[in-house]
Amino acid sequence: MQKVQALKITRAKEIIFSVAFTAMAVYAPMLVHYLGGVDAGRKFLPMPFFVLLAGLTLGWRAGLMAGLVSPIISFLISGMPAIAILPVMIIQLCAFGFLSGILKEKYSSFISLAGAIIFGFILAGMAILFFSKINAAAYVMNAMRDGWMGILIQLALIPVIIKIVGVNKPLRKEL
């Protein structure tokens, strides 16, 4: 069996792939909501999937960019996520993308992914304290309870995708 050779990344390719991950992060929730109904996005977490993948494959800058831009574009196109939760989603997705890229520089895909997910939910809870009057702990617990299937899908599929693509470290090291 022939081993897949890692892609040589240039700045232009990095930008193109970053835009592609961002586009997938915008489109995937629309598709999931269309196929699975209103609650499907909270269950399957399609936007974080591609933001995490951007951070793990391209590094923290691409992950941060996808995490920042995708919820804003999604809101402008579809009205999702709701305006009340948009700042929290931006913070959480930025944390997912940034942390997955930073952690991938030292740790395995799975540990980087798990760490980014855990800290992303913690930061979402902290953001709730600033942007909402709801209980932050309850928000995080409910988000994790509702999204457990999406979290498991991310933990199961993303490391496999990374292994298939052959990315041991982010394709572009920015620090």
Describe the structure.
By secondary structure, the chain is mainly alpha-helical. It has a single domain (11-165), classed as Orthogonal Bundle (Arp2/3 complex 21 kDa subunit ARPC3). The chain is built from eight helices and no strands. It has helices spanning 11-36, 40-44, 46-58, 60-78, 86-104, 109-131, 136-146, 148-165. It starts with 10 loop residues before the first helix and ends in a 10-residue tail after the last helix.
Short description:
With 175 residues, the chain is mainly alpha-helical.
Mean pLDDT: 91
Q: Report strand %.
A: under 5%
Whole-number count of domains: 1
Please report the total strand number as a whole number.
0
What proportion of the residues is helical, as a percent range? Answer: over 70%
CATH topology tier name: Arp2/3 complex 21 kDa subunit ARPC3
Q: Pairing-aware structural class of the strands and helices? A: mainly alpha
Tally of DSSP helical segments:
8
CATH architecture: Orthogonal Bundle
By CATH reckoning, the class would read Mainly Alpha
Q: Note the main sheet.
A: none
Topology as a string of helices (H) and strands (E): HHHHHHHH
Categorize the overall geometry. globular
Task: Catalogue the unreliable spans.
Answer: none
What does the radius of gyration come to?
Answer: 16 Å
Determine the N-to-C terminus distance. 35 Å
